[in-house]
């Protein structure tokens, strides 16, 4: 996790700095009555946004699959009485949450997590919708835009080579928004068509949106 903190959270790459700042501002200022809600952070990593969520929410459920990240996440979660850590795959969301008393859920998929998803991301989106269809449930999903790929992707990943490996320019496809490295790291930046599909799967009503040249944050609320 420390390398990730150094290279991503503490990045000097302007677009990535802005992305994390705007994302954090949205989830801490745009949710109505957060003190009555359970925030479910899917792919919580080492707990980058844990302090901010724990300070606002009634409860936080942080879900993570990677064992190394999970250890740090559990360590950080010990500081907060209202945080529970769940080990598991976000594609099994309904199963992971079956024993949790989730009230007024706000599901979070941040920092283009869907772009590096293990397995079929459609399954994850359908699971998010299922959980959010509880009365008053919400989903906030945050993605990088394919339209920014040509200008931003390779320079950004060059600053992250220690984590993702050297860019494989033969297999990287700007038109499709797909970055690949020589260590087989893959990240999807989402086209307008894909973003529309994602919104359709999540259903509900649009409660908010941030659309910049580089990234998209969609906030869905189910009645």
UniProtKB/TrEMBL annotation:
Gene3D superfamilies from the UniProt entry: Vaccinia Virus protein VP39 (3.40.50.150)
What SUPFAM superfamilies does the database record attribute to this sequence? Answer: S-adenosyl-L-methionine-dependent methyltransferases
- Source domain of life is Bacteria
Q: Which Pfam families match?
A: Methyltransf_25
Where the record annotates domain Methyltransferase, the positions are 40-132
InterPro entries tied to this protein: Methyltransf_25, SAM-dependent_MTases_sf
According to UniProt, the name of this protein is Methyltransferase domain-containing protein
């Amino acid at each position: 996790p420390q390398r990730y903190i150094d290279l991503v959270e503490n990045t000097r790459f302007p677009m990535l700095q802005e992305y994390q700042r705007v994302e954090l501002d949205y989830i801490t200022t745009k949710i109505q009555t957060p003190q009555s809600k359970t925030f479910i952070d899917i792919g919580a990593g080492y707990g980058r946004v844990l302090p901010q969520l724990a300070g606002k929410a009634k409860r936080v459920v942080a879900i993570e699959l990677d064992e190394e990240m999970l250890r740090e996440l559990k360590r950080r979660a010990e500081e907060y009485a209202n945080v529970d850590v769940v080990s598991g795959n976000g594609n099994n969301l309904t199963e992971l949450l079956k024993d949790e008393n989730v009230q007024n859920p706000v599901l979070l998929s941040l920092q283009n997590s869907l772009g590096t998803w293990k397995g079929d991301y459609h399954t994850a989106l359908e699971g998010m919708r299922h959980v959010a269809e509880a009365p008053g449930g919400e989903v906030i999903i945050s993605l990088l835009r394919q339209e920014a790929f040509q200008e931003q992707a390779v320079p950004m990943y060059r600053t992250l080579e220690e984590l993702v490996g050297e860019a494989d320019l033969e297999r990287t496809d700007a038109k499709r928004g797909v970055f690949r490295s020589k260590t087989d790291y893959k990240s999807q930046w989402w086209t307008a068509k894909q973003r529309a599909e994602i919104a359709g799967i999540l259903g509900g009503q649009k409660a908010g949106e941030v659309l910049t040249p580089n990234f998209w944050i969609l906030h869905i609320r189910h009645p």
